[in-house]
Design brief:
This protein is an alpha/beta fold and 279 residues long. Helices cover 25% and strands 16% of the residues. It has nine helices and 14 strands. It has a five-stranded parallel β-sheet. It has a five-stranded parallel β-sheet with strand order 8-14-13-9-10. The radius of gyration is 18 Å and the shape is globular.
């Protein structure tokens, strides 16, 4: 039996219930957390999971900044190599609960694929239920027929952000910690300046999470309505586009449909010479 999904977030119980559906692909999207010394890797994975390598496969290796998205045709080719089909249902998870998996969810949304969701609570939540796991391994699936239908409104670049700094119809929300936003904490990358994009608002990604799980929808809606009561378009930024995608996921859950992620985020902005910075 094949299924479709109509929500960007699923529970571990939902995944276990649909575990044997033929078009289900579970992606392990784990990456290390740049701002923490905690190890985010594990020697175990969800049974049958396929590794989605954000850093080495699904980022542009020739780009100047980390985690730069692939061009659509390259993404299409790499996704097919993972065994993803146009009728696949893709569930993304990571080993920190909800951290890097929303970046992969957003990548697929950017590429025009909607049958994708994030596993709320990720691998830690899956383990608490004693659901099926296995030692880390590379599963090789049959090449898929996935086709990109690129959605450029979901991504912003430095020139876009620069041109919209004074646009009253845009809200730029920064997912970094308040300390990094207000320059009371150093940036984890030594060559990147401190501060924030002018007219942007601090919206730490940690505020939408509780113990590695996204907060309830109604609670998230209140948070987003407080920062954006007029439902203006959001541009989400962070360090390198990873945690900005957490805000994008939370916005989608909160029924804020007009949003984009600034792909270069603060690493690019704080490394650029001809852009304004506020402290």
């Amino acid at each position: 039996m094949k299924i479709k999904i109509d929500t960007p977030l699923v529970t571990v119980d939902w995944l276990k219930h649909h575990f044997n559906y033929e078009n289900l692909i579970v992606l392990d999207c784990t990456i290390p957390k740049v701002t923490s010394k905690l190890k985010s890797t594990s020697d175990m994975q969800i049974l049958g999971a396929v590794y989605f390598d954000i850093k080495n496969t699904f980022s542009d290796q020739n780009a100047n900044f980390p985690n730069t998205v692939l061009n659509p045709k390259e993404f299409e080719k790499k996704a097919q190599e993972l065994g993803i089909n146009n009728d696949s249902i893709v569930v993304c998870y990571d080993n920190l609960g909800v951290y890097s998996s929303p970046r992969v969810w957003w990548n697929f949304k950017l590429m025009g694929f909607d049958n994708v969701a994030v596993l709320n609570g990720g691998f830690p939540k899956w383990k608490t239920k004693n659901y099926p796991t296995e030692p880390k391994q590379q599963h090789k699936l049959t090449k898929g027929n996935f086709v990109v239908k690129y959605s450029p409104t979901k991504i912003k670049y430095t020139d876009n952000v620069l041109s919209q700094l004074k646009d009253n119809h845009i809200i730029i929300a920064d997912a970094r910690s308040k300390g990094r936003f207000y320059s009371t904490e150093p940036e984890p990358r030594v060559d990147v300046k401190s501060g924030h994009i002018p007219n942007s608002k601090s919206f730490p990604y940690t505020s939408v999470l509780k113990e590695g799980v996204l907060k309830p929808k109604e609670e998230l809606k209140l948070m987003f309505q407080k920062i954006n009561p007029d439902y203006k378009e959001f541009i989400f930024t962070c360090g390198t586009g990873i945690t900005a995608s957490i805000l994008a996921l939370a916005a989608e859950l909160s029924e804020f449909k007009k949003y984009a992620v600034y792909d270069g985020s603060w690493t690019e902005w704080g490394s650029s010479k001809n852009v304004p910075i506020e402290i």
